[in-house]
């Protein structure tokens, strides 16, 4: 039988990638999500974790859920409250209502799992949210700090797991616990399907911010960064050309070496490098693996 952790990863691979390609994530990685927009995004996260952590707590005595129940290490409500106050001010709780359609859809999905005859489906939501926070979430934290010049340790509490010394080791342990979950094949299938649904719920959350991201110009910092990338690629091109010339000089007397150089088609290499300089704004996608 395939391990549950593997089934979850393989079963959600496509939707995981789709979430990463969403407009919100694209703008986030480019540093174009404003602090105000991010503050509202935190409200959505708070609604999700409020529902999820209540459901997990209610079912903490379930033998299968207990395997992946780590409230002290993983709970995100308190860190979210710190970030919500940082970005939205002391009255941030006023933003909790009205609940948006995507927020309600996500909350309902979690509550439906909790009230069903198979609450083990909550495993899927823990897998999607917490392993995502420990993986790609760490990349998002760096982007958030980089593009917003945040004070040290401010605004990124959500991504900081104070009681986890090594994220990779914890994730490995979590996956091993997933593989220890003992349920019928039917329930395993339900868990995998629920994980797919959770990714769809996240995509819906992202989509609620699309209208706020349309047509945003590059920030000055982004423009300067792109210029720095261009200069770096120009320098790399010059270094590559110089190295190529030196190699040609070193091997000028050797017909065998000359044949090798011809096979490498340096002119093609030159054109490829030149193309990279002309079009520096190639999107860099950082792989986010749950």
Automatic annotation (TrEMBL):
Catalyzed reactions: heme b + 3 reduced [NADPH--hemoprotein reductase] + 3 O2 = biliverdin IXalpha + CO + Fe(2+) + 3 oxidized [NADPH--hemoprotein reductase] + 3 H2O + H(+)
GO biological process, one term: response to oxidative stress
GO molecular function: heme binding; heme oxygenase (decyclizing) activity; metal ion binding
InterPro entries (alphabetical): Haem_Oase, Haem_Oase-like, Haem_Oase-like_multi-hlx, Haem_oxygenase_CS
CDD domains in the cross-refs: HemeO
Keywords assigned: Coiled coil, Heme, Iron, Metal-binding, Oxidoreductase
PROSITE patterns reported for this sequence: HEME_OXYGENASE (PS00593)
Coiled coil: 220-250
Enzyme Commission number(s): 1.14.14.18
Source superkingdom: Eukaryota
Enzyme class: oxidoreductase
Record-stated family: Belongs to the heme oxygenase family.
Official protein name in the record: heme oxygenase (biliverdin-producing)
Lineage, broadest ranks: Eukaryota, Fungi, Fungi incertae sedis, Mucoromycota, Mortierellomycotina
């Amino acid at each position: 039988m395939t391990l549950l952790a593997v089934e979850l990863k393989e079963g959600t691979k496509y939707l995981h990638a789709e979430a990463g390609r969403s407009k919100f994530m694209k703008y986030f990685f480019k540093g174009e999500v404003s602090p105000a927009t991010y503050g509202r995004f935190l409200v959505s996260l708070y609604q999700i974790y409020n529902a999820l952590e209540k459901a997990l707590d209610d079912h903490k005595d379930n033998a299968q859920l207990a395997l992946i129940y780590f409230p002290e290490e993983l709970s995100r409500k308190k860190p979210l409250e710190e970030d919500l106050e940082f970005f939205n001010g002391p009255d941030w709780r006023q933003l909790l209502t009205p609940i948006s359609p995507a927020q309600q859809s996500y909350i309902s999905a979690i509550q439906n799992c909790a009230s069903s005859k198979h609450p083990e489906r909550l495993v899927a939501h823990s897998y999607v949210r917490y392993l995502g926070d420990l993986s790609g979430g760490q990349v998002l934290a760096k982007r958030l700090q980089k593009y917003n010049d945040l004070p040290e340790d401010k605004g990124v509490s959500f991504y900081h797991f104070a009681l986890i010394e090594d994220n990779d080791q914890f994730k490995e342990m979590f996956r091993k616990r997933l593989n220890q979950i003992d349920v019928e094949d039917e329930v395993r299938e339900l868990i995998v399907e629920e994980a797919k649904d959770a990714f769809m719920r996240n995509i819906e959350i992202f989509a609620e911010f699309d209208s706020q991201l349309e047509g945003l110009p590059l920030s000055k910092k982004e423009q300067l960064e792109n210029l720095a990338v261009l200069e770096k690629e120009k320098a790399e091109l010059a270094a590559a050309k110089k190295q190529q010339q030196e190699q040609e000089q070193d091997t000028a007397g050797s017909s065998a070496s000359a044949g090798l150089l011809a096979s490498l088609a340096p002119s093609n290499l030159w054109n490829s490098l030149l193309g990279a300089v002309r079009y520096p704004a190639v999107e860099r996608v950082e792989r986010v693996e749950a």
